[in-house]
Amino acid sequence: MRIKAVLSFILISFCITSKSQAQTGGLMNSNIPVSTKWLLDVAGDAGRTAVKSVYMIACPKTGLKGTGFLLKSGHLITNEHVIRGCQANEIMAWSSFGVQVTFQRLIVDAKRDLAVLTPVEKQPGGLTLGTDENLLVGTSVFTWGFPLGYNGPAPLFSAGYLSGFIAYRKDADGTNVIKHLVVNGAFNPGNSGGPLFSPNNKVIGIVVSKHAPISEFHLSAIKALPENQSGITFTATDDKGKQTVLVESQVVAGLLQYFRDLTQVMIGEAISVSELKTLLQENKITLPE
Length: 289
Fold this sequence. Notes:
This protein has helices spanning 5-18, 34-42, 44-53, 216-224, 248-262, 273-282; strands at 54-59, 64-70, 76-78, 92-94, 100-109, 114-119, 140-145, 156-169, 177-185, 195-197, 203-210, 233-237, 243-247, 268-272. The chain is α+β, with helices and mostly antiparallel strands. The chain folds into three domains: 5-119, Beta Barrel (Thrombin, subunit H); 140-212 and 265-282, Trypsin-like serine proteases (Thrombin, subunit H, Beta Barrel), CATH 2.40.10; 216-262, no CATH class. The longest helix is centred in the C-terminal third of the chain and has 15 residues, at 248-262.
Protein backbone atom coordinates (compact mmCIF):
# COMPACT_ATOMS: atom_id res chain seq x y z
CA MET A 1 0.00 0.00 0.00
CA ARG A 2 2.68 2.41 -1.07
CA ILE A 3 1.96 5.79 -2.69
CA LYS A 4 4.47 6.73 -5.37
CA ALA A 5 6.52 9.84 -4.67
CA VAL A 6 5.85 11.02 -8.26
CA LEU A 7 2.26 11.80 -7.31
CA SER A 8 2.31 12.08 -3.55
CA PHE A 9 4.69 14.98 -2.95
CA ILE A 10 1.81 17.36 -3.74
CA LEU A 11 -0.42 15.55 -1.24
CA ILE A 12 2.22 15.65 1.50
CA SER A 13 2.86 19.35 0.94
CA PHE A 14 -0.86 19.90 1.47
CA CYS A 15 -0.82 17.76 4.61
CA ILE A 16 2.04 19.77 6.09
CA THR A 17 0.54 23.17 5.40
CA SER A 18 -2.96 22.24 6.56
CA LYS A 19 -1.89 20.45 9.74
CA SER A 20 0.93 22.65 11.02
CA GLN A 21 -0.77 23.51 14.31
CA ALA A 22 2.21 22.43 16.40
CA GLN A 23 1.69 22.43 20.14
CA THR A 24 3.95 21.65 23.05
CA GLY A 25 3.78 18.79 25.49
CA GLY A 26 1.20 16.86 23.44
CA LEU A 27 -1.61 18.79 25.19
CA MET A 28 -4.92 19.31 23.40
CA ASN A 29 -5.82 22.82 22.35
CA SER A 30 -9.22 23.99 23.57
CA ASN A 31 -10.10 24.55 19.90
CA ILE A 32 -10.69 20.91 18.99
CA PRO A 33 -11.43 20.52 15.25
CA VAL A 34 -15.19 20.35 14.65
CA SER A 35 -15.04 17.02 12.79
CA THR A 36 -13.06 15.51 15.67
CA LYS A 37 -15.67 16.75 18.16
CA TRP A 38 -18.45 15.16 16.12
CA LEU A 39 -16.59 11.85 15.95
CA LEU A 40 -15.77 11.77 19.66
CA ASP A 41 -19.43 12.46 20.49
CA VAL A 42 -20.60 9.28 18.75
CA ALA A 43 -17.61 6.94 18.98
CA GLY A 44 -18.26 5.51 22.46
CA ASP A 45 -15.61 5.08 25.16
CA ALA A 46 -13.49 2.53 23.26
CA GLY A 47 -13.84 4.43 20.01
CA ARG A 48 -12.74 7.67 21.65
CA THR A 49 -9.59 5.99 22.94
CA ALA A 50 -8.82 4.74 19.43
CA VAL A 51 -9.48 8.12 17.78
CA LYS A 52 -7.19 9.85 20.28
CA SER A 53 -4.44 7.26 19.72
CA VAL A 54 -4.36 7.07 15.90
CA TYR A 55 -2.07 9.48 14.02
CA MET A 56 -1.40 10.42 10.42
CA ILE A 57 2.27 9.76 9.59
CA ALA A 58 4.16 11.49 6.77
CA CYS A 59 7.70 11.93 5.52
CA PRO A 60 8.06 15.00 3.24
CA LYS A 61 11.46 13.75 2.07
CA THR A 62 9.95 10.78 0.25
CA GLY A 63 6.36 11.96 -0.16
CA LEU A 64 4.99 8.94 1.68
CA LYS A 65 1.94 8.97 3.94
CA GLY A 66 0.33 6.41 6.22
CA THR A 67 -1.23 5.76 9.60
CA GLY A 68 0.34 5.07 12.99
CA PHE A 69 -0.92 4.39 16.49
CA LEU A 70 0.25 5.25 19.98
CA LEU A 71 0.97 2.59 22.60
CA LYS A 72 0.64 3.27 26.32
CA SER A 73 4.43 2.91 26.47
CA GLY A 74 4.66 6.21 24.55
CA HIS A 75 5.86 4.67 21.27
CA LEU A 76 4.17 5.13 17.91
CA ILE A 77 3.85 2.10 15.62
CA THR A 78 3.59 2.13 11.83
CA ASN A 79 4.80 0.14 8.82
CA GLU A 80 8.42 0.27 7.74
CA HIS A 81 7.37 1.01 4.15
CA VAL A 82 5.54 4.16 5.31
CA ILE A 83 8.75 5.77 6.61
CA ARG A 84 11.28 3.97 4.37
CA GLY A 85 14.24 6.16 3.44
CA CYS A 86 13.64 8.61 6.30
CA GLN A 87 15.46 9.35 9.53
CA ALA A 88 13.58 9.88 12.80
CA ASN A 89 13.88 13.68 12.63
CA GLU A 90 12.47 13.71 9.07
CA ILE A 91 9.18 12.05 10.05
CA MET A 92 6.11 13.92 11.27
CA ALA A 93 2.77 12.87 12.72
CA TRP A 94 -0.52 14.61 13.43
CA SER A 95 -3.13 13.66 16.00
CA SER A 96 -6.88 14.01 15.54
CA PHE A 97 -6.60 17.21 17.60
CA GLY A 98 -4.19 18.84 15.15
CA VAL A 99 -1.13 18.29 17.38
CA GLN A 100 2.05 17.90 15.33
CA VAL A 101 4.52 15.35 16.68
CA THR A 102 8.23 14.98 15.89
CA PHE A 103 10.50 12.06 16.69
CA GLN A 104 13.91 11.43 18.21
CA ARG A 105 14.38 7.69 17.66
CA LEU A 106 13.40 5.14 15.03
CA ILE A 107 13.54 1.33 15.12
CA VAL A 108 12.79 -0.49 11.87
CA ASP A 109 12.32 -4.13 10.94
CA ALA A 110 12.06 -4.35 7.16
CA LYS A 111 11.32 -8.09 7.15
CA ARG A 112 8.32 -7.66 9.41
CA ASP A 113 7.51 -4.28 7.78
CA LEU A 114 7.25 -2.62 11.18
CA ALA A 115 8.63 0.61 12.62
CA VAL A 116 8.71 1.91 16.20
CA LEU A 117 8.94 5.68 16.66
CA THR A 118 9.85 7.53 19.87
CA PRO A 119 8.35 11.06 20.04
CA VAL A 120 10.48 13.98 21.18
CA GLU A 121 7.74 14.70 23.73
CA LYS A 122 5.72 11.83 25.17
CA GLN A 123 2.08 11.86 24.06
CA PRO A 124 -0.84 11.15 26.42
CA GLY A 125 -3.00 8.04 26.25
CA GLY A 126 -2.34 5.07 24.02
CA LEU A 127 -3.57 1.58 23.13
CA THR A 128 -2.95 -1.87 24.59
CA LEU A 129 -2.04 -5.01 22.69
CA GLY A 130 -4.26 -8.07 22.53
CA THR A 131 -3.43 -11.55 21.26
CA ASP A 132 -3.77 -13.20 17.87
CA GLU A 133 -4.13 -16.67 19.39
CA ASN A 134 -7.42 -18.55 19.04
CA LEU A 135 -8.89 -16.03 16.60
CA LEU A 136 -11.91 -17.44 14.77
CA VAL A 137 -12.54 -16.95 11.05
CA GLY A 138 -15.53 -14.64 10.73
CA THR A 139 -14.54 -12.53 13.73
CA SER A 140 -15.43 -8.86 13.25
CA VAL A 141 -12.37 -6.62 13.04
CA PHE A 142 -11.94 -2.92 12.38
CA THR A 143 -9.36 -0.20 11.92
CA TRP A 144 -9.01 3.58 12.00
CA GLY A 145 -6.78 5.42 9.55
CA PHE A 146 -6.14 7.99 6.82
CA PRO A 147 -6.83 6.29 3.47
CA LEU A 148 -6.02 7.74 0.06
CA GLY A 149 -6.21 11.55 -0.07
CA TYR A 150 -8.04 11.88 3.23
CA ASN A 151 -5.93 13.95 5.63
CA GLY A 152 -8.08 14.16 8.75
CA PRO A 153 -7.80 15.62 11.22
CA ALA A 154 -9.73 12.66 12.70
CA PRO A 155 -9.19 9.13 11.31
CA LEU A 156 -11.81 7.18 9.38
CA PHE A 157 -13.37 3.90 10.52
CA SER A 158 -13.28 0.75 8.39
CA ALA A 159 -14.68 -2.68 9.33
CA GLY A 160 -14.42 -6.22 8.03
CA TYR A 161 -14.07 -9.88 8.97
CA LEU A 162 -11.12 -12.16 9.61
CA SER A 163 -10.90 -14.41 6.54
CA GLY A 164 -7.77 -16.46 7.20
CA PHE A 165 -4.00 -16.38 7.63
CA ILE A 166 -0.86 -16.18 5.47
CA ALA A 167 2.68 -17.21 6.43
CA TYR A 168 5.61 -15.39 4.81
CA ARG A 169 9.12 -16.77 4.96
CA LYS A 170 11.39 -14.60 7.09
CA ASP A 171 14.56 -16.54 6.26
CA ALA A 172 15.82 -18.13 3.05
CA ASP A 173 15.49 -21.64 4.48
CA GLY A 174 11.89 -20.98 5.49
CA THR A 175 12.37 -22.09 9.10
CA ASN A 176 10.99 -18.81 10.46
CA VAL A 177 7.77 -17.29 9.18
CA ILE A 178 5.91 -14.02 9.64
CA LYS A 179 2.22 -14.31 10.41
CA HIS A 180 -0.30 -12.14 8.59
CA LEU A 181 -4.04 -11.93 9.18
CA VAL A 182 -6.20 -11.86 6.03
CA VAL A 183 -9.19 -9.54 6.30
CA ASN A 184 -12.25 -9.12 4.12
CA GLY A 185 -12.42 -5.35 4.41
CA ALA A 186 -11.63 -2.04 2.74
CA PHE A 187 -7.92 -1.34 3.22
CA ASN A 188 -6.50 1.42 1.02
CA PRO A 189 -3.19 3.25 0.56
CA GLY A 190 -2.85 5.46 3.63
CA ASN A 191 -4.33 2.81 5.96
CA SER A 192 -0.88 1.21 6.21
CA GLY A 193 0.38 1.17 9.78
CA GLY A 194 -3.05 1.49 11.36
CA PRO A 195 -4.17 -0.70 14.27
CA LEU A 196 -6.44 -3.68 13.60
CA PHE A 197 -8.85 -4.18 16.49
CA SER A 198 -10.72 -7.22 17.74
CA PRO A 199 -14.29 -6.90 19.12
CA ASN A 200 -12.85 -6.34 22.63
CA ASN A 201 -11.01 -3.24 21.32
CA LYS A 202 -7.54 -4.76 21.69
CA VAL A 203 -4.94 -4.37 18.92
CA ILE A 204 -4.49 -7.73 17.17
CA GLY A 205 -2.66 -6.58 14.05
CA ILE A 206 -1.13 -3.78 12.01
CA VAL A 207 -2.69 -3.01 8.63
CA VAL A 208 -0.06 -3.55 5.93
CA SER A 209 -1.48 -4.19 2.45
CA LYS A 210 -4.41 -4.97 0.22
CA HIS A 211 -4.75 -7.43 -2.63
CA ALA A 212 -4.77 -5.77 -6.04
CA PRO A 213 -4.33 -8.60 -8.59
CA ILE A 214 -1.99 -7.91 -11.50
CA SER A 215 0.12 -10.09 -13.78
CA GLU A 216 3.89 -10.15 -13.34
CA PHE A 217 4.23 -8.81 -16.89
CA HIS A 218 2.16 -5.70 -16.24
CA LEU A 219 3.68 -5.17 -12.80
CA SER A 220 7.23 -5.31 -14.22
CA ALA A 221 6.21 -2.81 -16.90
CA ILE A 222 4.91 -0.35 -14.30
CA LYS A 223 8.15 -0.72 -12.34
CA ALA A 224 10.32 -0.25 -15.46
CA LEU A 225 8.64 2.92 -16.76
CA PRO A 226 9.97 5.29 -14.03
CA GLU A 227 13.55 4.27 -14.86
CA ASN A 228 13.30 5.75 -18.34
CA GLN A 229 14.93 9.20 -18.58
CA SER A 230 14.17 10.05 -22.23
CA GLY A 231 11.10 11.49 -23.91
CA ILE A 232 8.89 14.55 -23.63
CA THR A 233 9.34 16.28 -20.30
CA PHE A 234 6.74 17.84 -18.01
CA THR A 235 7.29 20.18 -15.08
CA ALA A 236 5.04 19.65 -12.07
CA THR A 237 4.72 22.44 -9.50
CA ASP A 238 3.34 21.92 -6.02
CA ASP A 239 1.56 24.50 -3.84
CA LYS A 240 4.89 25.69 -2.40
CA GLY A 241 6.37 26.37 -5.80
CA LYS A 242 8.67 23.34 -5.81
CA GLN A 243 9.16 22.00 -9.32
CA THR A 244 9.83 18.43 -10.40
CA VAL A 245 10.74 17.51 -13.98
CA LEU A 246 9.27 14.23 -15.22
CA VAL A 247 9.42 12.46 -18.57
CA GLU A 248 6.21 11.14 -20.10
CA SER A 249 6.86 7.52 -19.13
CA GLN A 250 7.30 8.53 -15.48
CA VAL A 251 3.98 10.37 -15.56
CA VAL A 252 2.28 7.33 -17.10
CA ALA A 253 3.85 5.02 -14.51
CA GLY A 254 2.69 7.25 -11.69
CA LEU A 255 -0.87 7.35 -13.02
CA LEU A 256 -0.98 3.58 -13.56
CA GLN A 257 0.25 2.97 -10.02
CA TYR A 258 -2.20 5.52 -8.65
CA PHE A 259 -5.19 3.84 -10.29
CA ARG A 260 -3.95 0.41 -9.23
CA ASP A 261 -3.81 1.69 -5.65
CA LEU A 262 -7.45 2.72 -6.01
CA THR A 263 -8.49 -0.81 -7.01
CA GLN A 264 -10.62 -2.25 -4.23
CA VAL A 265 -10.83 -6.04 -4.00
CA MET A 266 -11.99 -6.05 -0.35
CA ILE A 267 -9.16 -8.36 0.70
CA GLY A 268 -6.36 -6.94 2.84
CA GLU A 269 -3.64 -8.09 5.20
CA ALA A 270 -2.48 -7.11 8.67
CA ILE A 271 0.73 -8.10 10.40
CA SER A 272 -0.06 -10.24 13.43
CA VAL A 273 0.32 -8.49 16.80
CA SER A 274 2.63 -11.33 17.90
CA GLU A 275 5.21 -10.02 15.39
CA LEU A 276 5.01 -6.55 16.97
CA LYS A 277 5.34 -7.99 20.47
CA THR A 278 8.48 -9.89 19.42
CA LEU A 279 10.00 -6.74 17.89
CA LEU A 280 9.30 -4.73 21.05
CA GLN A 281 10.81 -7.46 23.25
CA GLU A 282 13.90 -7.67 21.02
CA ASN A 283 14.42 -3.93 21.64
CA LYS A 284 13.71 -4.21 25.40
CA ILE A 285 10.49 -2.18 25.20
CA THR A 286 7.89 -3.05 27.85
CA LEU A 287 4.75 -4.52 26.34
CA PRO A 288 1.68 -2.30 26.94
CA GLU A 289 -0.71 -5.09 27.97
